[in-house]
Amino acid sequence: MSTLIAIVGIGIFCLLAEIMNLRKIIIPVTIVSLMALFGLTLTGNLPEIKGYESMIVMDSYGKIFSCLFILLTALLVLQSAPSYVKGTKVSDFISIKVFMLSGAVAMVTFTNMAMFFLGIEVLSIGLYVLAGSDRLNIKSNEAGMKYFLMGSFASGILLFGIAMLYGATGAFDVATLQEASISASTEYWFYIGVILITIGMLFKVAATPMHFWAPDVYEGSPTQVTAMMSTLAKVTAMASFFKLITILNSQMLYSYTEVIIVVTIATMLFGNIMALRQKKIKRVLAYSGVSHTGFMLLTLLNINEAQNNLLFYATSYAIAGLAAFSVVLFVIKNEDNDQIDNFNGLAKKSPLMAFIMTIALLSMAGIPILAGFFAKFFLLSQIITSGFIGLAIVAIINSMIAVFYYFKVIVAMYTKEAEYEKEYANHSEYYIVGIVAAILLLVIGLFPDALMNLL
Amino acid sequence: MNISIVLIVLLVGAIATYVSGNKLASKIALLTSIAAFGATLYALNAFNGGENLDVNTIWINRPAVNFALHVDGLSMAMLLLTTGLLPLIIASGFVTKFENEKAIYALMLFMGFAMAGTFLAADGFLYYIFWEIALIPIYFIALKWGNGDIEARKKAILKFFIYTFAGSLFMLLAFIYLYTKGGSFDINKLYALQLNSTEKTYIFFAFFLAYAIKIPVVPFHTWQANTYSKAPGVGTMLLSGIMLKMGLYSVLRWQLPLSDSAAKEYMPIIVALSIAGIIYGAVVTLKQKNIKKLLAYSSLSHVGLIAAGLYSLTIEGFQGAVLQMLSHGLVIVGLFYVVELIYNRYHTYEIKEMGGIRIQDTYFASLFMIIMLASVALPTTFNFIGEFNLLYSLFKVNMWYAIIAGTTIILGAFYMLRMFQKVMLGGETKSFQKISKQESIVLVIIVVVTIFFGLFPQPIIDLIEPSLQSILTQIK
Fold this sequence. Notes:
The complex is a heterodimer. Chain A is mainly α. Chain A has helices at 2-19, 26-43, 60-80, 90-109, 113-131, 138-169, 174-182, 189-204, 213-220, 223-248, 254-276, 281-297, 307-332, 346-349, 351-365, 371-385, 389-415, 428-446, 448-452. Chain A contains 19 helices and no strands. In chain B, strand 1 (55-60) and strand 2 (65-69) form a beta hairpin. The chains are: A mainly alpha, B mainly alpha. The interface between A and B is medium-sized, with 29 and 29 residues. Chain B: One of its GO terms (biological process) is electron transport coupled proton transport.
């Protein structure tokens, strides 16, 4: 609870700072206070505030994921700083990002479905606004509109599902719902509710067949917002989905498992195969994000043991995404043109950035010794242990397909020559975020225990 | 003293090479590789003195992964090959002017580090990591410093990467499966696992996929010739000299002991496949016009024989295979170095554009001839001993195998001699600048070592014999 209050406090500060003409300190103060909050939450040194009928409870799952979200947001705010130099909208956009973080935290610490819905709406509405935030750009408008229409539709389904649960049990409370889910006398519309919630969440995490919004929205949104969607928003939705399933469907029926397996395979394959054909980096990352969702969905098959694996995968995916987007921002520099050709000759112009991109892509492809390899490894061992060997082979084939499009970017950076003199967005923020993320990927890969033992 | 010192030297050296900048990079890289070789020799001495060089510390708790390195005669021999060839390969890079030298030399050392780690690892997971990271440097070396048209090169090298990556992922699956059975990646615990024959069959083929691609065994060889011809000289040497031995070594260390019954059951098929590789390689070599491709296919033929010996599951086969791995590594590096020397003067790999070198540089021609004769396993060269053992092992399996493989060796002598004739002999067509003293050092070392061990192979046999025996008892 106190973490949530502190985050909202930071958000309100951002808004007030605008009025007090303190625009310049917004970003530094936000980052510093988020980092402080990260430390305090992780070590558990925040005083626990009770209230709100305990609708927010910081259990270990919630705590660790909240820390991840806070860290990601701090880096994302830093990364987006150069984009808000000229405009006067600093306080608005930064505060939206911080409020989105509060939504994200609510989504993993809720003990009440109302709080969950509040969280997901805060997160989503923030994203709708940010997606359309480049208001003079027709593509950004399109992205915002598309995301809003589709997203609110999914929210509707989600809410309908929650209503069904309420109808069956008369409660929003997680403990009651959990009991109802394993009791034999539960009304059948409880399960309809579970299905509806599953559909809504599959949309939010962009799993096939509900992924169609992702590439268009990713492409149209301003790049620093795309970074936020593909890292923070995706990871949050996934963590929240996982928590929902532990509550509502911990003793999964075989029919439900089958659905998850089909969705997982479809998501991995579809994301990867579509990514092969893309020429724009943001679309490549969007489709690769879809396939990573497929991998993360595998954790649902072992709902009781897989939370570590989810944490590991989510962390390494999000951090690799951050590193990659730092380089993308650096390369495409506020231009609409985000063709992969832009990366031609990057290794000569800026070896450091090319190196960071390489690390990020190799990690996503699952090459040892980077974090992404361990993420895939933990997932594979989890599903093999539970006997899904066929699924493991599908996952492996997908890892191979992914190499094609990740290496397309690497090849462009290292072997091709830039066709024209290209200017890069030479901001120290991109370097800092990129370097921090790349180092994190390496450190997590060298000491995977540290992350695995958190949960 | 423990064996990790060799790995540390290589890794630190790789970083130091990159940091030192383009001017110093090549020298620092050479010094590092010599230091690593020195450390290996020192370790060899200690090993022969009965000292325990193993390392075993906990790295990851969940899953239980240890940083475990184990030294026995087999890994020692492979380590000697790696660190021994590395200075030669680095020195042979001196004849070429690379752009961004610090990067390529650092990558070479890093690759040496990964390959040395592969030969030493006694923990399945650690082994897999070393095996896999060895792929990254060679990918970049071939991509960035390779020759030929960039589009064609990109394709060839990506194909190589995907092929090997795909194969190793199946190996990873096998390892994970074994881990779920025994709860440990430790090699001895994996050896001790009780698996039924179906499981062993799956494990056998999962490993086979990884190794057959790396070695390569027909029909998984299609990446090889293209990659060899597109990679720069040093890259080809690393690939053919050391990297493909990773596959052969792993067959001995991991595949056969872990899937013993399946290995016995499928032995005739796999040996037949390997022999098909010998014939295929030899026949295709006859048609080659590009000297690098010619050597690539002849190498395919040679490793086919080594693989056949390994899968024959006899002590002679094992012994011959290891000896042949060492000698083939030496000789193939020498051959590719000769090719690079010629390329530097003629700027072509096409055989028909060469010729008349012998009358201009007899010294170079004689060195080349000795190495070429070694590669066709002339008696008194190191290669002869390995090849003899290998043929003997095939003879024990099936007389016809030995006859077919033996005939192909005659074919091998034919195409190598014909290649030598076309490249070196004949009247003077183009002027050939004599090779300098520095350039010849690498060749001289190779010639001396090849002949020395051809005459006195006993130290090496003594080194590897006990470990091969124990692997064989593990299988039986």
